[in-house]
């Protein structure tokens, strides 16, 4: 998941960068509003972290241009020291999806960011997913393998959903853990156990194992472009 931090205070930007990178995000920083708007419009992001008091173009103006002129619906989490109700209402009226007042907890930033991305992805990924002979209906929480119903725990269902959203792409362990549990896990066996359970459920009738481990990095569902929709 790719996140752009638009923040002119370098200490704050670096703290956010280090925390989010450690959580498995791919992160970039824009030190002013003009650069931030340019990067937001010319690259693909899963979310923006946007300060309001920026040189060149303030965060409110940037967000409005993003929404009204560019038609972008990328999730925006505003981070600011402005803490009145009017400030918050102004942020939302300019197109923010969420608003967090400084000083804030990095864990809360991570939790809100994860919720925004999850909600945004839910709007565009509710259609049935299919990779090879595995079929997942996210709305019904229903999985089939070659017509056979596959029963999965909620966490394994989340894991399969994430893998099927990006077939053939290796997804980092930290990214998977953050998406499922809200942050990287200290116990590396937790994710490994869920991958094992998912594999067992998907191969219970003797089907080939499509989940590939890239040791020291992460996992992918290996299906080939011809089989992924």
Strand order in space, largest sheet: 2-1-3-4-5
Overall mean pLDDT = 87
Low-confidence parts:
225-229
Beta strand %: 15-25%
Tell me the CATH architecture of the largest domain.
Answer: 3-Layer(aba) Sandwich
Query: Span from first to last CA?
Result: 20 Å
Specify the structural class: alpha/beta
Overall strand count: 12
Task: Please tell me what the overall shape is.
Answer: elongated
What's the number of helices? Answer: 8
Q: Please state the CA-atom Rg, rounded to the nearest Å.
A: 19 Å
> Secondary-structure element order, as H and E?
EHEHEHEHEHEEEEHEHHEE
Domain count: 2
CATH class membership of the largest domain: Alpha Beta
Q: Level of helix content?
A: 40-55%
The biggest beta sheet is recorded as:
5 strands, parallel
What is the third-level CATH name, the topology of the largest domain?
A: Rossmann fold
CATH superfamily membership of the largest domain, which one? Answer: Response regulator
InterPro entries: CheY-like_superfamily (IPR011006), OmpR/PhoB-type_DNA-bd (IPR001867), Sig_transdc_resp-reg_receiver (IPR001789), WalR-like (IPR039420), WH-like_DNA-bd_sf (IPR036388)
Modified residues (4-aspartylphosphate): 51
GO molecular function, one term: phosphorelay response regulator activity
Pfam families: Response_reg, Trans_reg_C
